[in-house]
């Protein structure tokens, strides 16, 4: 909870989350519980793995994206059966519900599981089970996005895309889009043109991490060569005026993750992010948690609060951010209309009483 007078509004806003890696919702507690259940031996040469508290401490001092990813990939080694994936996703959905998420579009990393012998169907069925339950018990709608890992060869992404189970999940609409994540700097987006072209032929939605640690130029090549509909992070677009204008003109949504950027040392503090500049330039963006279990257990509302404490936005500006998040979502038009209606009823009194 933040000290802002508009905290109750922030809590109640019907939020759309577009940038959350389900594997990044694996808390140290759940990690240890699943490791014990599945008899997975955690690394013995790293004292951080001695206890959940040790991991909590270690997660406070990541010095880069790659330092975090090292722990992220070890962490997911405890996920074996469909129930484990369901447990993980359900844990995220309950936090999301508490924070006022109405709709979310969640990432998964199939190659990271298939590469250690876990079937795509196992991963998918666990996540699907949790999604169904989230809709019926929590009223949260969701979509699933399969990310390709940019530290693996582009041919690996293509081979994964071509697997029958993967193609079937796209064709059936169980997975509506593709993304690109993992280590950014040495792996520019254009390396992955072939798999994105295949995604385009299948009518999939497309997004890619770009401009997190990598340069603004990666945002441009993601747009030009991968034909993405949105950009994950994208904060370094601020270094290129022409590109910033293009992102605004083309209504490209940036899925910004403020607390993640601080934990991974992209910026020193949330106040260093270009939030005010994005608003002034008419850039559409949403605010997201990225890997909440690794970044201080800060889910979406904590990210909204961190932005509010740094930028002291008005109620009208928050409503505009939420409107942009709904417009930029990949849900049905009918669902968007429901979300707009909820936003209108929540925001109405605030917009008429001015900012507290
Ligand atoms: N913030 C991030 N950037 C790139 N890849 C990721 N995978 C999980 N979180 C990520
Ligand atoms: Zn991410």
From TrEMBL:
Could you tell me what the cofactor note in this record states? Binds 1 zinc ion per subunit.
Is the keyword Protein biosynthesis assigned to this protein?
no
The UniProt keywords, alphabetically, are: Cytoplasm, Hydrolase, Metal-binding, Nucleotide metabolism, Nucleus, Zinc
Mind listing the GO biological process terms from this record? adenine catabolic process; hypoxanthine salvage; nucleotide metabolic process; purine ribonucleoside monophosphate biosynthetic process
Q: Name one GO molecular function term.
A: zinc ion binding
Chemical reaction(s) catalysed: adenine + H2O + H(+) = hypoxanthine + NH4(+)
Q: Does the record bear Nucleus in its keywords? A: yes
Q: Mind telling me which residues the site (Important for catalytic activity) is annotated on?
A: 233
Where does this protein reside within or beyond the cell? Cytoplasm; Nucleus
> Locate the Adenosine deaminase domain: which residues?
14-343
At the top of the EC hierarchy, this enzyme's class is hydrolase
Listed cofactors: Zn(2+)
UniProt: substrate binding residues: 291
Main location as per UniProt: cytoplasm
Q: Which residues bind Zn(2+)?
A: 19, 21, 209, 290
SUPFAM superfamilies on file: Metallo-dependent hydrolases
Instruction: Give the superkingdom in one word.
Output: Eukaryota
Q: What is its EC number?
A: 3.5.4.2
Q: Record's Gene Ontology CC terms?
A: cytosol; nucleus
The record's active-site residues are 212 (proton donor)
Q: What does this protein do?
A: Catalyzes the hydrolytic deamination of adenine to hypoxanthine. Plays an important role in the purine salvage pathway and in nitrogen catabolism.
What's this protein's family per the entry?
Answer: Belongs to the metallo-dependent hydrolases superfamily. Adenosine and AMP deaminases family. Adenine deaminase type 2 subfamily.
Q: Which NCBIfam families match?
A: aden_deam (TIGR01430)
Q: What name goes with this protein?
A: Adenine deaminase
> Which species is listed as the source?
Friedmanniomyces simplex
Name the gene behind this protein.
AAH1
């Amino acid at each position: 909870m933040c000290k802002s007078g508009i905290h109750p509004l922030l809590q109640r806003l019907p939020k759309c989350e577009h940038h959350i890696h389900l594997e990044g919702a694996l808390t140290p507690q759940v990690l240890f519980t699943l490791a014990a259940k599945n008899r997975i031996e955690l690394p013995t040469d790293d004292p951080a793995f001695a206890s959940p508290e040790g991991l909590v401490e270690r997660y406070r001092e990541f010095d880069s994206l790659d330092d975090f990813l090292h722990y992220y990939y070890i962490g997911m080694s405890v996920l074996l059966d469909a129930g484990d994936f369901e447990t993980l996703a359900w844990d995220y959905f309950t936090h999301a519900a508490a924070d006022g998420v109405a709709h979310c579009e969640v990432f998964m990393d199939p190659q990271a599981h298939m590469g250690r012998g876990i079937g795509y169907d196992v991963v998918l069925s666990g996540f699907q089970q949790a999604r169904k339950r989230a809709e019926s018990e929590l009223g949260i709608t969701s979509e699933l996005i399969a990310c390709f890992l940019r530290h693996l060869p582009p041919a690996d992404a293509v081979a994964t895309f071509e697997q029958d189970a993967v193609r079937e999940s796209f064709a059936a609409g169980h997975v509506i889009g593709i993304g690109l994540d993992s280590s950014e700097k040495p792996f520019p987006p254009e390396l992955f043109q072939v798999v994105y072209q295949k995604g385009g032929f299948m009518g999939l939605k497309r997004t890619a991490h770009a401009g997190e640690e990598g340069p603004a130029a990666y945002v441009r090549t993601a747009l030009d060569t991968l034909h993405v509909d949105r950009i994950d992070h994208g904060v370094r677009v601020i270094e290129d005026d022409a590109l910033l204008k293009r992102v605004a003109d083309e209504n490209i949504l940036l899925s910004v993750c403020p607390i993640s950027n601080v934990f991974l040392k992209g910026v020193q503090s949330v106040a260093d992010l270009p939030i005010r500049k994005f608003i002034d330039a008419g850039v559409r963006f949403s605010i997201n948690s990225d890997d909440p279990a690794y970044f201080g257990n800060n889910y979406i509302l904590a990210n909204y609060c961190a932005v509010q404490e740094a930028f002291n936005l008005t109620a009208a500006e928050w409503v505009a951010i939420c409107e942009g998040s709904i417009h930029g979502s990949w849900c049905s038009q009918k669902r968007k209309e429901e979300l707009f209606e909820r936003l209108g009823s929540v925001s109405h009194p605030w917009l008429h009483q001015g900012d507290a």
